[in-house]
Design brief:
The protein starts with a helix and ends with a helix. The strands form eight sheets. Strands 10-21-1-22 form a four-stranded mixed β-sheet. It has a four-stranded mixed β-sheet with strand order 8-5-4-9, with helices on both faces. The protein contains eleven helices and 22 strands. It is α+β, with helices and mostly antiparallel strands. A hairpin with a 5-residue loop joins β6 and β7. The protein has two domains: 256 residues, Alkaline Phosphatase, subunit A; 150 residues, Domain 2, Phosphonoacetate Hydrolase (Gyrase A, domain 2, 2-Layer Sandwich), CATH 3.30.1360. The longest helix has 25 residues. 29% of the residues lie in helices and 20% in strands. α6 packs parallel to α8 and α7 packs antiparallel against α8.
């Protein structure tokens, strides 16, 4: 990545100690608040709302973050300064002055129309006329590619020309795809680095043209994807133990029964929240017994033990499962693939009660997603216990020891410090 290497050469590059769980929503909430999940409340890429017995994956609004975020801090400390939130996953309804976030319109017939949530509301229409719709099919799934990150960068430049915000937060997701599908050290993952570096270089050049200078820059990894060769299906194990209940629908297929299950798991890459009905201590003990010592599982944390992971929050499952760095959790609950729900074979990030990286794979013969979790070659989320699980923090200025490691909880404060120097001098 020659452009980022040049940026690091002029400033600093350090390792990031990622807090648990190192997945998109919690990591971004931590970067924005400087707080841990037990404080900001974002415990996964989705939530199980116990009062409604419903899972919400990838659709929550900003109000779920229970701590002030960088745009809130900037507004309070620097009245009049304008901020932009460009694609952080929980930005809908946040306190930034300018926002862009995909928000497809779901129609009653099951189809969807592409749109983005923007502030101001009419700005997506202007972007649509200038650069076309956000390429949602390239944002996730078997067609995921550089097109989505390129559109995000191009749309940010359009917003910069029109509004000239003083502070930007831009999320470019491209490095997720190939590393999970083919492995973090694969030729495909190496090409993704090259492609993204070119997008970033072009965006920086255009931003410099708008502002007259590149400004100060922080580039931060959300997490590190590690090679995996093993997976665990917690819901199948809970079902075999008689704790998970199944509902057979009119189509004859099996669906997870949240309301009547004594225990079930919302999985998310390399960790899982196991929700226990009525927090029954006997069932909690059964869950701990079932998973303790199993291959691929590094730890089982129940009740107060969740404090070790800084995820002891009311939204968390009664039991947290953590995988080994070379393993991950699949959401499957059926014991016969012929009884899997229809959405299991489709790209459907909202109806699946957990994250499904197998959506990256598409079988042209069946025109569907295979039900083979062994295809996945990369994952993330487990506690960063080794250097290979630590990402990079690049700053355009010299910041601390180049060999130092910085907690991701410190990056929000670092950002405010550089803004203090810039805007109060």
């Amino acid at each position: 990545m020659p452009f980022l290497d040049q940026l690091a050469g002029k400033g600093s590059i350090r390792r990031i100690a990622h807090s648990f769980p190192a997945v998109t929503w919690p990591s971004q909430a931590t970067l924005l608040t400087g707080a841990l999940p037990e404080q900001h409340g974002v415990i996964a890429n989705g939530f199980y709302w116990r009062d409604r017995c419903e899972v919400e994956m990838w659709t929550a609004w900003n109000k779920v973050i229970e701590r002030p975020q960088l745009w809130d801090l900037i507004r309070d400390r620097f009245p009049g300064r304008k901020t932009a939130a460009w694609f952080p996953m929980l930005s809908k309804g946040c306190g930034a002055d300018y926002i862009c976030m995909p928000a497809p319109i779901h129609k009653p017939d099951g189809s969807e129309e592409m749109w983005c949530y923007t502030r101001p509301q009419e700005f997506y229409g202007e972007m649509l006329n200038a650069i076309g719709h956000f390429p949602l099919k390239h944002f996730w799934g078997p067609l995921a590619g550089i097109q989505s990150s390129q559109w995000i960068a191009d749309s940010a430049v359009l917003a910069a020309k029109k509004f000239q915000p003083d502070f930007w937060y831009i999320y470019l997701p491209h490095l997720d795809y190939a590393a999970q599908k083919s492995g973090p050290d694969s030729p495909q993952a190496m090409k993704a680095l090259v492609d993204l570096d070119e997008v970033i270089a072009r965006m920086f050049a255009q931003m410099s043209g708008v502002y007259g200078s590149p400004g100060e820059v922080i580039v931060a990894s959300e997490y590190v994807i590690t090679h995996v060769n093993h997976h665990v299906c917690p819901n199948r194990l809970l079902r075999q133990a008689g704790l998970l209940s199944i509902h057979v629908a009119d189509d004859g297929l099996e669906y997870l029964d949240f309301r009547n299950s004594k225990a079930w798991a919302m999985v998310d890459h390399q960790f899982a929240h196991v929700f226990v009905k009525d927090s029954d201590p006997g069932v909690v003990a059964d869950v701990v017994r079932i998973f303790s010592g199993l291959p691929g599982i590094a730890g089982v944390f129940a009740g107060g033990d969740r404090q070790v992971l800084s995820i002891d929050h009311p939204r968390s499952g009664e039991v947290i499962l953590v995988s080994e760095p070379d393993s991950w959790f699949a959401y499957y609950w059926w014991l016969d693939d012929g009884l899997a729900p229809v959405f299991a074979r489709t790209v459907d990030i909202h109806r699946k009660p957990g994250y499904d990286p197998v959506e990256l794979f598409f079988d042209p013969a069946t025109k569907s997603i295979p039900l083979d979790a062994s295809l996945v070659k990369g994952s993330h989320g487990a506690p960063a216990v080794s250097g290979r699980q630590q990402g990079a923090l690049i700053t355009s200025w010299v910041s601390g020891s180049p060999d130092g490691v910085i907690p991701d909880t410190s990056i929000a404060a670092m950002t405010m410090e550089i803004l203090d120097r810039q805007w109060t001098s």
